[in-house]
Amino acid sequence: MLRTFLNGIFRENPVLGLLIGLCPTLAVSVSLKNAVGMGAAATFVLVFSNAIISVFRRFFPAKIRIPCYIVVIATAVSIVEMVMAAYFPALNAALGIFIPLIVVNCIILGRAEAFASKNGLLASMADGLGMGAGFTLTLSLIASIREVIGSGKIWGITLTSFYSPQGPVKPVSIFVMAPGAFIVIACILGFIQWRKGRAFKKECGSCSACGMST
Amino acid sequence: MDYVLIFISIAFVNNFILSKFLGLCPFIGVSKKRSEAVGMGLAVIFVMTMASQVTWVVNRYLLLGGEQNLFYAIFGRSKGISPESFDFQYLKTIVFILVIATLVQIVEMFLMKAAPPLYKALGIYLPLITTNCAVLGVSLLNAKDFMNIQSVSESFLKSTVQGFGGGVGFTVVLYLMSGIRERIEKYPIPKALRGVPIAFISAALMALAFMGFAGMGSK
Description:
The structure holds two protein chains of two kinds. Chain A is mainly α. Chain A has one domain. Chain A is 64% helix and 4% strand. In chain A, the strands form two sheets. Chain A has a two-stranded antiparallel ribbon. In chain A, strands 3-4 form a two-stranded antiparallel ribbon. Chain A contains eight helices and four strands, in the order αααααααββββα. In chain A, helix 1 runs parallel beside helix 7. By secondary structure, chain B is an all-alpha fold. Chain B has ten helices and no strands. In chain B, helix 3 runs parallel beside helix 8, helix 5 packs across helix 6 and helix 9 packs across helix 10. The chains are: A mainly alpha, B mainly alpha. Chains A and B meet through helix 2, helix 4 and helix 8 of A and helix 2, helix 5, helix 8 and helix 10 of B.
């Protein structure tokens, strides 16, 4: 169970490992608050839909299972939408259409098809929780980099500005705009590839069959 | 004039990929070859235009409360129930995704029967489009005026133009990206950045260039 949970965070991290769910990752990671809100919403949807789908997996006719999954997921998303509009109006306004767009997030449909449709209730919920945690952590990582560099804040709190001989350093506001998101994720993915390459060289030298090389 | 403004503003200023971050999965997944990019792009233009038309009709006549709601006309008027109580906006997400999924399926079946050459060209891309967030995104954006342009949500034609323009913007960027990636393959890039990371860096530079469009169309 713990392994299923950790699998979502490291080995099969949805964003950095499988490159799915990119749209909300890049769009929402302007500030850490938004990132955590988005991550929590997606985690709830993942756990809810994985649980329902794994309980009813024998009742979905094989041919129309995908539409069935989509209805379950859309229901979960509608719940999140209403709760957020009622209790977190500021967050709801900041995330905008990316809350309803969780429906078409490939992570959720992907886990429903790849995991929940084959496994029991508890395992599926652990998988949903793990995937959600992986998604949230990735989002938070990208968001903290962007928020610190781009607006000089973290969780909305202004950091003491760094001083240089010419005076305080201004935040690089390009990082909270669209190009910054692409640059940050490119650097993170590059770092992962570099680490993988090194680990591969160190551990087994020349074997190409172990799956470490991409 | 409004139509030109809407087109330019959704296709370039508010480009779906580079400034709204919608449809990134196909942008990274299907941008390795130019021929694939064209096929995917045409399919997206086609589906997005149709989806914005269909969801506009559904939203206006089935979901929005008011005099024009069909349920009000059938059930409410004779019984004297107020038109506002027929507001089903909270069902928008579920209804839109089902309508889009059905639409894609119907388009696929229709093309297979009526236009086999077109089906051959676009066929494999169509199922992918259901889960393309740009399509659901344009439908949701059509339902609210997000670009400070008056009354897109109220006009059928304006919504259509917005859907079409969004598709065109998507295709232009996808095609440019595939051209860049085809060339990049031949250059000596550091090992760590090969593949997806360098694609994202190119995307960042393109987004930087597209930021030059910002401010166009604002009055």
